[in-house]
Fold each of these.
Amino acid sequence: MQEIEKNPSLKSRIIEGLKQGGKEAFKELIDHPAVNILMASIDGWNNAE
């Protein structure tokens, strides 16, 4: 999360990728137990913009 926060370009690409591919596809791609925490953070970024 901290690395993504430090890199606005990466953050924008992740948000755009979620808009294009959807959350479920992203969750499948990550396949990690902490993905729900990551998704909640990304939702917060998306809502802030």
Note: The chain has four helices and no strands.
Amino acid sequence: MATKRIHTVPTPALALNHLRVAVVQCLDSYHDVVAFLRALPSLSEPLAALLALLQGSSRAMDQWPAIALERLSESEVELALIALPAIPAIHVHNRDDFDDNVGARVADLCTLAATWPTKITHLSECIQDNEIPYVQRIVSHCTRLDAIVLHLDAFAPLLPSLPRGLRHVALMANLYAPPPIQNIAPTLRQWVDVGTSSKKHISFHNTWVLSDAEAVAEVVATAPSLTGLDIDDTSELVEALVARPKSLQYVTAFGIKRTPLKEAKQLLARLDVAKLTRLEVDEVADVNWVLSLLHSMPNLQELSLNCGEFKTIPATLAAATPRLRKLQVRNIGFSATAFNKFLGWACGLKQLRYVSWDVQGHANRQLATLASTLRQWINTTGVSEIHLFGAHGNCVAKMVASVLCESTRGTGLTLVDLHSDGCVVSPDMVWALAQSIAHLTNTRINIATFMDDETYQHVKRQAELVRHLNPAKLTQLSVESSGDLALVGRWGVY
């Protein structure tokens, strides 16, 4: 008689904690993470802490899927450290703040890197030559380090310690000391030619003195792995790149800032613009000329324009950049006709998901057109984040509140961010904005304005009262002070 086999019931995949963590780390939206964790019948301690963090901390929401521990409050840091196994990445923007705010719990940054070698992916504070030994100890543990900011003279000494997967290097000059002779081309060539990343990105910031600018230009132009290039106030490199007869054929993400207009145009002409997925033109005297080039950029997904005036809009813009997902417009003046045509183009961008717009100086007629555009973006296009900047005060706040009140409940809008630079949004209008999202699901509104301390304390008491009386309706509501007169209010309905 054959022996009977014992049949066991297989364990459901999502009952395994490591698979739950793996799912969380693949989700780019904190809304998706919260929805996923809420649907699970039980949670491990790290996942429970992560759920509490993403439900209660607007800072963590804004940062996800990476977290900057030094930018969290004390209670939020406690939750984040418990949730660390489930957090995809840690970004470090200020090492001193990290040691001050987090060091009491994890000793120092080097200890965190050694304990969690896959967590730290960005070191965004510029590393100086006198910090090299300390940073070498940190990066020797960071197996997934993706981006780092360095002084020019720290690049060569640190390169042997940097992981092979490093994708983005930002180089800066030391503004407080006379620049030494720099020969960075050999180091740059070594970095772009080795490693596991096939799409590397180099940024030059204020590096106006390069003794080997022509050699650096040769590396930038000929390295197939170097697909991202940002140049900010680096005149010698710009001149060297423009002087080369060949194009920058491998660059697909490009940014130019604080560069003479003539050279900026010449450099952009060296690119294969049909391949561009990202373009940023910032503080280049004028950006109107960029509009006539956009019809040649069918793959563009991110566009940022800063400083200039649009008097006329080329007819070719109407069908340009069909794949654009992110649009940022700052410090741009519009004629009445140009304003309507530009927003008409923006309304036709079916894949647009992120908008940052400067409303400074908009007349009432332009605000009415912008309101119509906002309705289109929110209810039809499916834009998820809208950031409005400028000294706009109550007039823009009233317009935004009206648009949000009329928006459908199932919209994909997750964040409206209002920065009223130098102007006051009245307490009544603050509450009107908060109430305007009461019917929306998964939508937050951030308001930055100015008010005296007495008014600030009154608004704060109101916020606490609303939270106490109706916690189910407004589960994430806070009024926070930032500086002597600044008020930041955050409201969320989930």
Note: The chain has three domains: 15-106, 119-271, 353-493.
